[in-house]
Amino acid sequence: MRIERNLTLVWLFTICTNALPLVSVILPYYNEVIGIGYREFLLSEAGFAAAIVIFDVPTGWISDVWRRKHSLALGVIVNLFGWSGLLIAHNLWQAILSQVLLGVGYSLLSGTHTALLYDSLLSVARANEYRKNEGKRLALSLYAVATASIAGGFLYAINPRLPIYVTIVVQCVAFALAAAMDEPERHKRSGGKHPVADIIETMKYALHGHAEVGFIILFAAVMFCSTKLIMWSQQPYFVQLNFPKSAFGLLMAVGYCLGGISSHWAHLLDGKINIFRALMSAWALALLVCIGAGAHVGILGVALLMIGGSCIYGATSPRVNEAINRLVGSDRRATILSTQSFMAAFLAIPLDAITGWAAGYGGVQASLFMIALWLCLAGACLAAWKLRRR
Predict the structure, then answer these.
(1) For residue 334, which of 109, 178, 80 has the smallest C-alpha distance?
(2) Is the CB of residue 304 less than 8 Å from the CB of residue 293?
(3) Residue 283 and residue 278: Cα distance in Å, rounded?
(4) How far apart are the C-alpha atoms of 275 and 320, rounded to whole Å?
């Protein structure tokens, strides 16, 4: 195992797969090119989440029994079809189909990159460095989105489809990087068990047979479907404040950079705050962000949404992945990590639809209050469940 080379390829792959210029102007793109609004955009996001619900755990299983680098390469190929679909989409159903393809591609990548990183370090007896390196990987992903967001605003002004053209080129580079990776040694499972039975067994282990893993998966799912919606709330928030579209990329880039910084340095809190308190702190902060930004649309709300989307996710996600990696073996690591993404996507389907409905009647403020209500109900139930099982 050429560990340093593999780590470099993982970093570059992360940058390429997250260099998505359209993200910062996706709402204007949906409005002006596809011809649909924020509510319909959230419905297409529900399609993305539904694809993850259907495919994330099976593709995690594929990654556990197949070569991880091949799963990454296949994920990039499917994503290329998804971005190409958005390039020619002219109605809601075409947008949903494109988002479904992107969801399948995301499922092939989800859990696989972090499992490959952990197994690469484990193969050279450096697993204790995983937490720091996973934080760096996530930070790089957010820095890549930030840089691409800045470019997206300028590219969109030249040609609204130009951000997607650039994305397709960069994704092709990501495919080459995945093909060049070394596959780390790991314990492989026998192929005798039916894959569906294997997946069900893994999900039972995570959500029922191992209480600590189950709590982490469920609470992280509640948080991550919420922080994603908070992030998407920024663009309609900017529209309500009459900000020019050229400023969207710069403003979102600031938020992504803050998220990258929080991911990069969050490991310094390891040993000072346990996973339960870390998740509860993130939950409380997200709740305050939604209430504060929704109560009054203004500059303070813009700052809060930057913190509530990328920063909370950036600080929490590596901690969640580290806890899962520490508690499960390499034979089902990617499947467990995909189960966490599966749960987040499963919860996102109704949450996206309900939030879109609220936005249709009361604008972005109503959608933020809906997210706050969701956080109150789900967070309180999970915290009570955890405390009762102590």
Answers:
(1) 109
(2) yes
(3) 9
(4) 8
In angstroms, the Cα distances linking 136 to 6, 140, 164, 224, 317 are: 14, 6, 26, 19, 12
* Gyration radius of the chain over CA positions: 20
Phi and psi for 96 in degrees, rounded to 5? Answer: -65, -45
Q: In the block, which residue shows the tokens 């499922």?
A: 107
- What was the pLDDT predicted at 217? 81
Distance of alpha carbon 382 from alpha carbon 28, whole angstroms: 37
User: Is 161 strand, coil or helix?
Assistant: coil
Q: Mean pLDDT over residues 328-343, rounded?
A: 68
Give the architecture (CATH level 2) of 3-182+195-388.
Up-down Bundle (1.20)
Segment 76-106, tens digit of pLDDT: 999 999 999 999 999 999 999 999 999 999 8
Q: Pick the closest to residue 27 from 238, 227, 295, 230 (CA basis).
A: 238
Annotated domain spans of the chain? 3-182+195-388
Q: Model-level pTM greater than 0.90? A: no
Q: What is the DSSP string of 67-88?
A: -HHHHHHHHHHHHHHHHHHHHH
Place of tokens 């996530």: 138
Pick 265 or 117 by higher pLDDT.
117
| Comparison of pLDDT for 64 and 349, the residue scoring more | 349
Of 355, 333, 337, 338, nearest to 52 by C-alpha is 338
CA–chain centroid gap for 154, Å, is: 25
Q: Which residue bears the tokens 């799963």?
A: 71
Q: How many Cβ atoms sit within 10 Å of the Cβ of residue 354?
A: 17
Taking the CA atoms of 17, 18, 20 and 26 in sequence, report the sign of the dihedral they define.
positive
User: 49-63, 178-192, 210-224, 225-239 — which is least confidently predicted?
Assistant: 178-192
Site of tokens 């929704």: 294
pLDDT over threshold 50, residue 189: no
Residue 294 and residue 297: Cα distance in Å, rounded?
6
